[in-house]
Amino acid sequence: MQTNLVKNNQRVKFAYRDLYLNDALVHQEIEIGTHNGTHLKLGNLEILDREIRNVRTSGNELHLGWQDAQDQPQVVSMIVDRELRTVADAIHYGYSRRLFEQQLAEAGDKGIGNQCRDSVCPFCQAKILTLDEYPWAPQVYCHFCESIHTTVAVDGIGQTEKDYRICPKCTMYSRPRQFTIGYFWFVWFHAQVNHRSILCCNDCMRPEAWKMTLGNLPGVLGMPLALTQLLRVYRDAIKKGPFQGLDKGNRLLKRGQVEKALEQYSKIIEKHPFSAGVLYNVAIGLLAQGDRVHATETLDMALQNCVNYAPAERMLSKLQAERDVA
């Protein structure tokens, strides 16, 4: 559905709030924004896709940087409680192609234009450039929607990888989703409401859901929301498919039961041999045991599966820098 919206240049409508322009609050009220395939409209503010220089999402926040008509850098940020991924994908479609052409031109200036190869993310339709100096790998990381997709035929994969990426809260490879946290209290005959959205994996949401359930008991009115989020956490756990057991492995790792967590990850890798994201979690577990040598080897394996997997690249660079200092 997201792909059709972008390809057909149809208008994407979304609600946003807490709009900041260059760190100055514009308004906090909920407004309706649109993206029509060529530009983003936020009230009186219009941003052309070709002017956008960077796009970043964090939880339910959307951050954009662009150059205005006077070639001045501008930054806007907002909270999008719903349809954040749809909006981000629509912007990525045009922005990634402009960035691709820029990177291709820069490669041409360096005399390595013929070493470039391209791929299109099947999930957000962003165009990705890599160089032939990198070895071919069965997986490709999309820097735009932060997903990994397997380019070779593997039974049971299909579109399942679409929802898996690094959880913003625990920084593990998992299946982060949008949850709602809300409390409703009565204080001296006055009602107080606390409401916000959070993007995290099931395991990170578990304690939040229980805390919300217990916290809403006195007020009662907040219980339907609390129980709904609690039900989502347990009902929608990863119970089947190639990543079955990933939730459990991550939960065990957070509790310090590293060996049991590594056993869970091994079962996933046996079913899905190309698993850069799961190998990244294995490296986290090995580091928790103080095994930097095998953690480094595991990160190398992750990059053999997905040569441009940025989280593994960053962690490996950090380990190498620490080793050089020592």
Beta strand count: 16
Structural class: alpha+beta
Which fold name is given in CATH as the topology of the largest domain? Serine Threonine Protein Phosphatase 5, Tetratricopeptide repeat
Number of domains: 3
DSSP helical segment count: 9
Describe the protein in words.
This protein is an alpha+beta fold and 326 residues long. The protein has 3 domains: 2-93, Roll (PH-domain like), CATH 2.30.29.30; 160-174 and 239-325, Tetratricopeptide repeat domain (Serine Threonine Protein Phosphatase 5, Tetratricopeptide repeat, Alpha Horseshoe); 177-235, no CATH class. It is 38% helix and 28% strand. It has 9 helices and 16 strands. The protein has helices spanning 2-7, 84-109, 202-215, 223-235, 246-254, 258-271, 276-288, 292-305, 310-325; strands at residues 12-21, 24-27, 31-35, 39-42, 45-48, 52-58, 61-67, 73-79, 116-120, 127-131, 139-141, 148-150, 165-166, 173-174, 177-187, 190-200. A hairpin with a 3-residue loop joins strand 3 and strand 4 (39-42). The longest helix has 26 residues, at 84-109.
Annotate the secondary structure layout.
Layout: H1 2-7, E1 12-21, E2 24-27, E3 31-35, E4 39-42, E5 45-48, E6 52-58, E7 61-67, E8 73-79, H2 84-109, E9 116-120, E10 127-131, E11 139-141, E12 148-150, E13 165-166, E14 173-174, E15 177-187, E16 190-200, H3 202-215, H4 223-235, H5 246-254, H6 258-271, H7 276-288, H8 292-305, H9 310-325
Antiparallel strand pairs: 1-2, 1-3, 1-8, 3-4, 4-5, 6-7, 7-8, 9-10, 11-12, 13-14, 15-16
Helix pairs in contact: 3-4, 5-6, 6-7, 7-8, 8-9
